[in-house]
Amino acid sequence: MDMDLLLISPPYWDFYSPFLALPSLSGFLRSKGFAVRQLDLNIVHFNRMIDKQGDAILKELQNDDVYDGLDAAYKNVFKANDAKEFTRKSAFIQPGQLSGQFLKKNFYQFTLDEINFLDGIFHYIYFNQLYKKNYWDKLAEFELDSIMEEVSSELLTDTLLGNECMSLIQQGLRLIGFSSTSFDQFIVSCIYARMIKRIHPEVKIIFGGSYIPVLVKTVRPDKQKKIFDLCDYIVNGEGETALELIIQYTSKGQGELADIPNLCFMDSSGQVVHNAAKFENFQQLPEPDFNDLDFELYLMPEIMLPYQSSRGCFWGHCTFCDHDANYRYNFRSKTAETVVENLAALKKKYNNQHIQFVDEAIKPEKLKEIVAEMEARELNSLDWMYYSRISGEYTDDLVQRARALGCRLVLFGVETFNLRLIKMIRKGISEKNISKNLSMFSKSGIKNIIWMICGFPSQREEEIWYDIDKLKENSPNLKGVFAGLYRLERNCDMYSAPEKFNIIDSDPDNPYIFKSHYNGELIDQNQIFSLYKQEYAPLVSELSRSHNRYIIYFRQEEQDEPLERGLSK
């Protein structure tokens, strides 16, 4: 066959919008003349799982024993304290109706509570069926075979076998790439790769994605060799040029493996070789290509396309960040002219109204340039959301102009309001600007979502109470608060130099468990956990219109009033 490469996105947690990795790679490779197919098995698997198991699991949750055992986070979403109340609140879902299309088609008719209810059901079914057992205790030893057995399921297998992947192999496809953004996705990639290799050992498998640099850094070299039982090549970094040269090497016999940037491979002596790193000229990369994706499968009520105007992080100093250091410290941004040109091209090609900027964060000064270019080109037919940092550079004029050009939602990483902790995590923001920014955007009609973290190393209970008070104080300007307990990830600065951050000890098998002190006094982590569960998490739930950014983005204020049916009864 004429196909050079099949790119696969394995199951992942986001069902509302396509992930950007495959369209970005496809856009680049197609611009070079290669025949590439992209397959989002995540959204395919989601729809298969809900269709096949949704009704049975919904009925199962109406059992007292099952519902009582739910995590409190789910009960907060369902707004039901027991199975009887859950049953009453689920009455708007008739047997056979539960599906992604059921939510999508009724998105603007359902109450906000009903939408959140369905979203919670979808995530519960997805995670509890895909990851039934806890494999994290086996992660440190990286026993791949054992971990895969914990995750593998018949339905997961059927998703691969029942899709076009196997038929393409039968037609002559010989090169497949899997993109992973998390350990969960990577394990499913391993399961799928093992299946393909057992049936078709002649197929070459590539592992890549943003999780790979973390994997390479944190897994011992002798354990990394096991990965090559499942794949032939690993792309450790940006994949555009690497994939171009791998295709040329495998299909045309051109070039040498040693010359392919960001490539890891096993040489003839059985040693893993790590080639030199390369960072793409981001300005010159074409806009993403979404041609293969079926937008009808995603749960967004209208087409929303992801777009990236920069790679890396323009700040790059946060001590809790577990992004690969090479990515973090190699910030590159497209010009405002190119960004707006790309957006206009996507609008023309896909007739979409909504864009999600997925940059780590857009600088206020870059936003100003993009807004000015959108004004100059009269590109005012898009609505969009983006990620940003708290900054004193924002002005009322800039924010109001952004809103006039379609900005609906901004997402800020705040983490904490406490000055001592802000300095410790090297966040580079001030409490004054947090409140100022939230007020400024809210008054301009742009919705605010913030991220918070509870339980930093050395964080005392009074400092958590301070954050709780500040969340209440800023609540009029918030539409969502996404929060969680701190995780001491292996790829962050805090893990690399624990003594600098008052960390005494940590559990390599559980990132939530560590010992820390404040001025020599040991922090009682159990009390921190209790405070989070009893006070912090309930407040976050109360302040959030939804735990899902897409729902917050698409829902208008006047649509929040309950209708005389369903959950409103």
TrEMBL record:
Species of provenance: Paenibacillus riograndensis
Matching PROSITE patterns: RADICAL_SAM
Pfam families according to UniProt: Radical_SAM
Keyword set includes S-adenosyl-L-methionine: yes
Protein's name according to its UniProt entry: Radical SAM core domain-containing protein
Cofactors, names only: [4Fe-4S] cluster
GO-annotated molecular function: catalytic activity; iron-sulfur cluster binding; metal ion binding
Keyword list, A-Z: Iron, Iron-sulfur, Metal-binding, S-adenosyl-L-methionine
Residue ranges of domain Radical SAM core in the record: 299-533
Domain of life, source organism: Bacteria
PANTHER family, alphabetized: ANAEROBIC MAGNESIUM-PROTOPORPHYRIN IX MONOMETHYL ESTER CYCLASE-RELATED
